[in-house]
Amino acid sequence: MSDAAHARSDGPISSSARSLTWGAYLAASWTWCIGMFLPTMLIRDFGGWAFWAFAIPNVVGAAAMGLVLARPGDSERMVAKHWPALSLFSLVTASFQVFFMLWLARSVNFHDTALKDPAVLAALAAGVIACVLAMARESLASLAGVVVMLVSTTAGVMMWRAGTLIPPDMAAPAGDSATRLTYLAPVCVFGFALCPYTDLTFHRARQVAKGGTGSAAFVIGFGLMFAAMIAMTAGYAHLFSGGNLSAGLARAGSTGAWLVVHLFVQLLYTCSVHARAWMDFRGETVEGSSVGWGLMALALIAIGVIPAAGAVADRWLHDARGWEPHELVYRVYMSAYGLLFPAYVWLCIAPTHHGATRVTKWHVGVWLLACLVAAPAFWMGFIERREMWLAPGLGVVLLAGVLVPWSRKSESAQG
Questions:
Q1: What's the total number of domains in the chain?
Q2: Do residues 200 and 281 make contact, with C-beta atoms less than 8 angstroms apart?
Q3: pTM of this prediction?
Q4: Among 56, 289, 307, 413, which is most buried by a count of CB atoms within 10 Å?
Q5: What is the mean pLDDT of the chain?
Q6: What pLDDT is attached to residue 233?
Q7: Residue 368 belongs to a domain
């Protein structure tokens, strides 16, 4: 980003305050329908121990991105080299949030009197206004993140006071559950360790909050703020033990409205900051305009088609696994973050990070072929719940790394 943009975003506040505000921005931008719902599915399927398989690589992987790209110019070069893929990540992520919002809207009883609580409505209004400002003005995005985090914190306190948040049983799984989780955990590490490098909001924070200020923002944002958000997810996971979103919200009783506010505001903020970051970066890359607008069109189509497909499935299909059809769509979306994007980082970003090495058609071809070969195994693991298939699927992607040229660290950092 330009120096002028940096100055506008930093504003006349201290370095410590910038670390806190950008930490809130990062935590809120990363608290989306994975962090707010995937742990409920994992705890349901594998028990409380699965939360750590989700939380540890998620927190560590996200915080590490800011430290790995701490040198001036690292993030700028990565965005310039990989704009199409990073743009696609934002657009798929925004589509994912819209899908979940529609699922949420379908599951909420809007006649519930709790939604008429003035405190709930005030929190919702504050969160929505913050999200609108985050999208409208680059300089307000980090401060808006603070507001969003305060809204979610308020929702968490209200649910805790009402006894809605109950820590899950953290006993280690045994037998078949332990075996299945053993196969799933490496994929969690692979996805959460590498996906952050394709997130434009992370790059935006890293480029605006420079040096130690930015590094502190990543550590505080993920080590404290984001960790608190997913701990809250673990607390309300018991509500969704049956796998039904509407039933879980109903089970929350009078505090269900606070849970809806938390979910909705975080989803909307994620969409807002990804759209803002996409617009900010688009003009700074050679191919940004043409490729970016094409991907935006595809994402808009997906936003319409995918929820419609879920509605059709809800009416006509009955999943033998006992899931809501929306959960099937959710799991398919998750494959992008377990396979598609981390494989891109492993096969295209990591090999070209050092020196002037550019992404070639060979890099992209190997990435696409590896994903194609691994996809059936990931389907068996994620959708059919035969997690042992994830081992060969992940092995295919990792071994494909020997087929792409890797730049040497000793090469010039100009790229």
A1: 1
A2: yes
A3: 0.86
A4: 307
A5: 84
A6: 96
A7: no
Identify whether 375 is part of a domain: no
DSSP three-state, residue 364 = helix
- Name the nearest CA neighbour of 346 among 274, 392, 402, 388: 402
- Domain assignment present for 354: no
Instruction: Tell me if 313 sits within 8 A of 328, measured CB to CB.
Output: yes
Residue with tokens 């049983």: 169
> pLDDT value at position 412?
43
Q: What is the dihedral of CA 261, 264, 266, 268, to 10 degrees?
A: -140
SS3 33: coil
Q: Is 211 exposed, middle or buried (0-12, 13-18, 19+ CB in 10 A)?
A: exposed
Q: Report d(CA 218, CA 56) in Å as an integer.
A: 15
- pLDDT at residue 306 tops 60: no
The Cα-based distances of 62 to 5, 57, 87 in angstroms read 24, 8, 18
Domain of residue 315: give its range.
3-323
Amino acid identity at 209? A
CA–CA dist 372, 360 (Å, integer): 19
Q: Let me know if residue 302 belongs to a domain.
A: yes
Residue 99's alpha-carbon distances to 86, 107, 150, in angstroms, are 20, 12, 25
The residue-averaged pLDDT of 283-312 equals: 52
In angstroms, the CA 219 to CA 223 distance is: 5
CA distances from 104 to 35, 95, 110, 316 (A): 15, 14, 11, 20
List the alpha helices (DSSP H) in 283-360.
288-316, 325-335, 341-344
